[in-house]
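A quick word before the example. In earlier lectures we treated sequence and structure as two separate objects. From today on, think of them as two lines of the same record. Here is Glucose-6-phosphate isomerase written that way.
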Amino acid sequence: MASSISGIYTSSPSLKRFPNQTPPLTQPLRKNHISFHARRADRTLSLATPHAVAREVSDGAAAAAAKGLEKDPRALWRRYVDWLYQHKELGLYLDVSRVGFTDEFVREMEPHFGKAFEAMEELEKGAIANPDEGRMVGHYWLRDPKRAPNSFLKTQIENTLDAVSKFANDVVSGKIKPPSSPEGRFTQILSVGIGGSALGPQFVAEALAPDNPPLKIRFVDNTDPAGIDHQIAQLGPELASTLVIVISKSGGTPETRNGLLEVQKAFREAGLNFPKQGVAITQENSLLDNTARIEGWLARFPMFDWVGGRTSEMSAVGLLPAALQGIDIREMLAGASLMDEANRSTVLRNNPAALLALCWYWATDGVGSKDMVILPYKDSLLLFSRYLQQLVMESLGKEFDLDGNRVNQGISVYGNKGSTDQHAYIQQLREGVHNFFVTFIEVLRDRPPGHDWELEPGVTCGDYLFGMLQGTRSALYANDRESITVSVQEVTPRTVGALIALYERAVGIYASLININAYHQPGVEAGKKAAGEVLALQKRVLAVLNEASCKDPIEPLTLEEVADRCHAPEDIEMIYKIIAHMAANDRALIAEGSCGSPRGIKVFLGECNIDESYA
Ligand SMILES: O=P(O)(O)OC[C@H]1O[C@H](O)[C@H](O)[C@@H](O)[C@@H]1O
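And the structure line, produced from the sequence above:
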């Protein structure tokens, strides 16, 4: 069954970005910020390069901020209450009281938030908010299709959601079944994808999958042959009842393609008919889409060019795997939609995403001078920080701002879960280099009603978890380490949807404050290109070694000879690495010397490949 995939919206020619808007400030805010902190630090700063100043400011600001952190319990309580954000319907709280921003700072930032809110409003109306790629940015429409800029897109979103829901129901109910499985129904999902085509589904599976889901999910999210073999081995005979979902927006990502080819090989070797167990989620007419269509895969679902990989969890990318695991995807969408509505407030204090952006700007001086440590005190949210690494760092980690200034922006993200991380690196956070701020994710309900018990009089296991979070928050703050706390009642599809929406919007607002495009990823292409060059060089090395190995007698070659015959003397080190990797996999043989002594090594191929397919 192929879902109805109609033409994808082609973005209109790149319009001048928000022609009616005065572009957001670029450096001045930081200078204001700098001057503000300079005043605070009673120091006059020689305004050297932005970085030097930012560095001096961040030291000065940190010192000033540290000196300025409120410590009086009564005053802190007032601050807590004054700044506490509550979303009643979601049961979500945001506490920013342990971040030391001042009233003056907030006043300075207000006009910039005003511009950010305007930019976000334009974005949601369909402006070209990704000017570098001439694209709209439409992930918010996925959970509120009526906000899409035209009926065509609205219908696409609604049709895709219906198709995803129907397909998942048919698989779970057994109406759609694998061609040759003793169970008579699909029992496993093997998701093949990387980056935004994996991290969201992985986070949501870890957070929300029931203990006994209708289909268990596992992931191939890399081109590591051993990792792929491990997943296939763990499936064993259940490969026959595995639904393989191949996810790739571009449809051409090498790691995902390799994963597909490896899995298809496993299907062949097991005598299984892959297309009858394969599903593709990709842009229409991509290489993957055409492959799936031509080979007659079980189903295809669209990805849209106006949804980025790192904001695709509320598209078929995240919704299909979730639905197949029995997760309520309408609730995920509802939670995200409620959070989106809250984040449309133009009153800073009533806008949780803006409050996060305010804290990020204050804590990192608007230049990423501190890292964002994500600490959920809940096992099921373990992968939230990995998910946020891509969402935050791939969005904000940019070399240039929208006016072409070199800014090398970003905020680094790390963290796992509490209280576990207290036994790993919290020592450094408490006493070591002060280069971070923490975001605690607190989940108030410890266990389903009626399932809790006291492991000592009046104390439950969850009380310990609660105490560890609060104790760590207090201990860090006592040593002038700032933190944010996001609290939810429990981990549900609705609150997970809300958390995703909260951070998607915070990233977008923060990006406006620092005047960068949050929706492209030029740096990633450089890595892909470089990898392609290594593989091209490897093919030349193989051709040269093959020619020498087909001689009689075989002619082992030195690295210099290989480099010369590849016409790449300057690449001798990469050639050495290529040969070392091939030798480690028995694909090249060392005739003399060893890889430890590159100068004396002589290599050849174990066999002569007369058709020279390496060329
Ligand atoms: O979904 P795909 O097109 O296969 O892309 C997978 C990933 O590739 C690159 O790393 C991009 O920077 C990511 O944003 C994207 O999620």
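Notice the following. The pocket of 6-O-phosphono-alpha-D-glucopyranose is lined by residues 194-197, 248-250, 253, 256, 309-310, 394, 521, 524 (CB under 6 Å). We will return to this example when we discuss secondary structure assignment.
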